[in-house]
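Supplementary Note 2. Why include the ligand at all?

Several targets in our set were suspected to adopt different conformations when bound, so apo predictions alone were not considered sufficient. For every target with a known small-molecule partner we therefore ran a joint prediction. The input for zinc ion is given below.
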Amino acid sequence: MRRSLPWLALSVLALAASGAEAQTYQRTLVPGRPFCVVWPGRDYLYRIDAAGSSRTPGDSELSAIEAAIASWRAVSDTCSDFTFTRGQDLVHPRVGYVKDSQDNENVLTFREVDCNDIVPPEDACIDEDTCANTYACWDHGAATIGLTTTTFSFRTGYILDADIELNASTNGRGFTFTTVDSPPCDGQVSSECVVTDIQNTLTHELGHVVGLDHVSVPGSTMEPTAPPGETHKRIIDAGSAQGFCDAYPRGLPPTQCGERPDLGRHFQAVSTGTGVGCGAAPGSLFPAAALLGALALGRRRERAGGRAGAAPRALRD
Ligand SMILES: [Zn+2]
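The joint prediction is reproduced in token form.
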């Protein structure tokens, strides 16, 4: 029987054991349990905020989103039957998961205002931790580019919901998202050069959606930081692709961590890190790179240092 006690969980790292051909990846573990978060089904039905982004030319942000999705589809085509399906766009989408609600969509939204700039200080949403949805505002760390909130069963690790927010807020707390391929901006921010690339960011966040955690491997799509001008995360690295393929083998149930002895691969919890994050310093073209984020105790005002990158949320059941 499921109880609706929500758990805000730490993201735990798991590393693929070394092997002659093993690629490095990490899957997100259920805190305190020897298994991972994973989708029980084979389709990620996502819905984009109908508001899109007001700061990118035309519908270029939608093209960037679809390009990121297409990269994961291409990986799936090599090894899996996992699909990504775009549903109808949503007006005022709600991030998070409410048990027994009919409104639990997997959403993707640009937060173009920071909650600090719009929420009255006495508003009850602050204590209730509901400001982000009430005001459609960014309610996470200022140095965080994007945040994926994943809700899963504490008993099984099965993912129930995964939502992506991008920090497009202004006033120096957010990021200037761009959609062009090149060149990196050089001192002058413009939509004609790369500042924070949407496709780069979303390819990474979608890695979290499918259950991958960060790795400290230069060049990996799942590296936790992204400097301005970066686009290489658009191309899913071999390790991240392997993590996906191992989790969702075509024609077979999703695998749990450690369930592929045939591949000579084992997983081991190596850290309960307080840090993960999909971050970089906002507002500057040359930030002091990164930010380790972590788990997201997703509480409002816990934004010192801009923590929080992936936010697994569990239902204890
Ligand atoms: Zn991340």
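The longest strand covers residues 159-167. DSSP finds five helices and eleven strands in the chain. Comparable summaries for the other entries are listed in the accompanying table.
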